């Protein structure tokens, strides 16, 4: 049975207005595409930047979205960091290759999709913006896993601080946690989840019940989260990256001592990334700080938005 990182039914209620929409009036926003040369081809990485990178007074923040296979949209609450009274940061979002508004490559073989591909794309983005001498990362779910791999594999000199939000340290722990939490739901929900995309509507109806408790407890579910889901779970969606075996057997626990930057680890009380799922980050990254958001599940930047931004901003500015 396939267990996705974040999922919701593809006919979700929409919020009437998001804070992101209000930010547009007060914070500069730019978007576009970055050429990404890779293995003799040039692809395009879509980006969105809030704040002024050229005249910045604070270190920019790069946000890594979850999946693999989602889009940046559901992480847009982090644009709040560009609109803080005392410590505003330029914030960079992007859709990882194969997803959403970036180049999609459904014809590529499974072996094309690997962690180093996404790290190369990240390095290309940093070079494009000329911020290789200094940046922070906030990685959510798969984004936190990817950031950990970036440090362990490449030891980037410019990374100043790291936030690992709602991320497992091993894919087996994520699966174990999901199955434990699923046991509390009715048998009909468990049966529908087990069938997966054999019955897409039944699957999503079941997952809606699970994620209303352990994915995002905000009601109705935020529009930006709906948008990210539709890219891979809507009708005629492109599931290339979502279905690629990028994280088969993945476990970074024994390598985490190599992370050499100040790190904040976050989860929610009702998160699929329960404390034991994130424990290796806390125990093995030297000096790592840890906080649990008591009213949140997998998306505390929606569920306890103000507190989340204050916590992250304080850590980045420390």
Structural account:
The protein has helices spanning 19-23, 115-129, 142-154, 171-182, 187-195, 200-214, 223-233, 240-243, 275-284, 300-303, 305-317, and strands at residues 29-38, 41-50, 61-64, 91-94, 135-140, 159-165, 263-268, 289-293. Mean pLDDT is 91; it is low at 7-22. Helix 5 packs across helix 6 (200-214). With 318 residues, it is α/β, with parallel strands linked by helices. The chain has eleven helices and eight strands. The protein has an eight-stranded mixed beta sheet with strand order 1-2-4-3-5-6-7-8, sandwiched between helices. The chain has a single domain, classed as Alpha/Beta hydrolase fold, catalytic domain (Rossmann fold), CATH 3.40.50.1820.
Task: Reconstruct the topology from this structure.
Blueprint: H1 19-23, E1 29-38, E2 41-50, E3 61-64, E4 91-94, H2 115-129, E5 135-140, H3 142-154, E6 159-165, H4 171-182, H5 187-195, H6 200-214, H7 223-233, H8 240-243, E7 263-268, H9 275-284, E8 289-293, H10 300-303, H11 305-317
Parallel strand pairs: 3-4, 3-5, 5-6, 6-7, 7-8
Antiparallel strand pairs: 1-2, 2-4
Helix pairs in contact: 5-6
Report the strand count: 8
CATH fold field value? Rossmann fold
**CATH homologous superfamily - what is it?**
Alpha/Beta hydrolase fold, catalytic domain
What would you call the structural class?
alpha/beta
Extract low-pLDDT stretches: 7-22
Q: End-to-end distance, in Å?
A: 43 Å
What count of structural domains? 1
Give the topology string: H per helix, E per strand: HEEEEHEHEHHHHHEHEHH
Strand order within the widest sheet? 1-2-4-3-5-6-7-8
Signal peptide: 1-15
Family: Belongs to the peptidase S33 family.
Protein name: Proline-specific peptidase
Organism: Lentinus tigrinus ALCF2SS1-6
